[in-house]
Amino acid sequence: MSLTFYTGDFVMSKIKIKQNRTEFYETAVSMGFYGNEEASLFGKKDNVRKFWEDMVLKTYCRPFIEDFLNQHSKITILDLGCGSGEGIELLTHIPPSNPKEMVNKNFILLPIKIREYYGLDISPSMITQGRANYRGKNNFKFEYANLEEGLPPAILNHEPFNIYFSSYSALSHLTPDSLESLFRQIFSHAQKDSVFIFDVHGKFSPEWPVHWKVEKELLPYSMAYLYNKDIREKNKIEWFNICYWKPADLKMRIERAAKSVNREIEICYMHDRSIFVGRHMDTGLLSPLITQLRYQVNRLIDHGYRGEPKHLKLNLEYLEKYVPENSTFWNKLVTYKNSWNRVIYFLEALLNHKDTKISAFIESEEIEHMEDDFKFLAWLFRNSDRFPVADFWASVIGPQVAMILRNIEMSYSEAEGIGHGLMCGIKVMK
Fold it and tell me: What is the pLDDT of residue 357?
């Protein structure tokens, strides 16, 4: 299937859509993207994935797991769209919420605390890789399932799970009706106090403005970001259709599904993740502009590279023509952009020893909750001689700046669908 999109004056010409999306994943597994990888500037498990995105997910999963472990000695997990087991790595590497506990305990959920992990995925290669990754762990199961068709009989006949889990927008592959049907099955299958933690792709991420005004249930997406630019330019990019979600539409589907099976639920949170550091900010495949923001933040986090402040500045003017009328999400994007840029301007003032500007930033009424962050950055910079590192900027200042940018994103609790991921946490109450 091929089609052409016209959005404003930006054209996505004759994108070929593969009906069978698993073909890309089969290739990705064969190329090693789903084995064990170290963090880096590029690739599936780059620095942003490990130190920004994974940490945000862990932060939102942590209260649920801590509550369970306060009441149960072991827990059970159903992972929907499990891939090769990335969910296990994420859930078993969550630090305690109280830093004082980390003296004797690195992570709150150890593998021995998992009575059963059950992973479902549509990709046979993912299942094979997952079984290889967790060979010898009999309580960890990986099985084929097409979630478009709902939960398989083996799960429907299984006892309820404590945690129903899905990460990195696996459920965006489902049509809205199929996802609502899956919600009904999960709410029917779950027991009181079970939780459902998942994310989908946000509709209004700055990565794909060409989709903002298009009112279709499914629109093109590609994982070509796994390849570097040279490979993308030399090879045909593979596309498949996914669903991009508005928070209001997702909430409506969740609540309607729960009501239809007579279950009471609480939506504990909806949160935008990876607003300016999503994968396609750097590819320009769904946008008229390549920003390289993710690459620059990867450099900030890496102790071996110096970030470049001038390339971290945000300008959203190129997005304005894509904004639908009467949109509420745009103000939030602009607010975050302004806070982000203040951090970069402050960093430049530090690097150029502009003491007057530094003081003005710290004393400004506009920064509000950022005052402590700016004071801390200034203290670090002025006490650089206390840190015996080869490159103070790369090892100390850069990572701290990246975490401030991440924390600004996390401070916005009301989701607008402006992130690469739209995260959701649901608790079954009755």
Answer: 76
Reported as a pLDDT band with limits 50, 70 and 90, residue 49 is very high
Q: How far is CA 27 from the centre of its chain?
A: 22
CA dihedral defined by 262, 263, 266, 271, rounded to 10 degrees? -90
Q: Which residues pair with 119 in a beta bridge?
A: 79, 142
The residue assigned the tokens 């390289």 is: 292
Q: Give the residue-averaged pLDDT of 76-88.
A: 95
Strand ranges in 126-224 using DSSP code E only, listed in sequence order? 140-144, 163-165, 195-202, 219-221
Measure the CA–CA gap between 334 and 337, rounded to whole angstroms: 5
According to CATH, the topology of domain 2-279+414-428 is: Rossmann fold (3.40.50)
Please say whether the beta carbons of 295 and 282 come within 8 A: yes
**Do residues 215 and 324 lie in contact, with contact meaning Cβ atoms separated by under 8 Å?**
no
Paired residues of 75 in beta bridges: 114
Query: pLDDT value at position 18?
Result: 60
- The length of the chain in residues reads 430
Measured CA to CA in angstroms, residue 145 lies from 23, 122, 198, 335 at distances of 16, 5, 17, 41
In the chain, domain spans: 2-279+414-428, 293-410
Q: For residue range 126-160, what is the model confidence (pLDDT) as tens digits?
A: 999 999 999 989 899 999 999 999 999 999 999 99
When the pLDDT of each residue in the chain is averaged and rounded to a whole number, the result is 89
| Residues 36, 38, 39, 41, CA torsion sign | negative
Half-sphere exposure of 136 (CA within 13 A, CB side): 2
Q: What is the pLDDT of residue 2?
A: 43
Burial annotation 104-143 (CB, 10 A radius, 16+ → b, else e):
eeebbbeeebbebbbbbbbbebbbebbbebbeeeeebbbe
Q: Which helix (H) or strand (E) holds 406?
A: helix 398-410
State the Cα–Cα distance between residues 250 and 256, nearest whole angstrom: 10
pTM for this structure?
0.89
Amino acid at 380: L
The residues near 374 (Cβ < 8 Å, ≥ 6 apart) are 346, 358, 361, 362, 367
pLDDT at 11: 46
- Give residue 39's pLDDT band: very low, low, confident or very high (50, 70, 90): low
Return the DSSP state at 263: -
Q: How many CA atoms lie within 13 A of 172 on its CB side?
A: 25
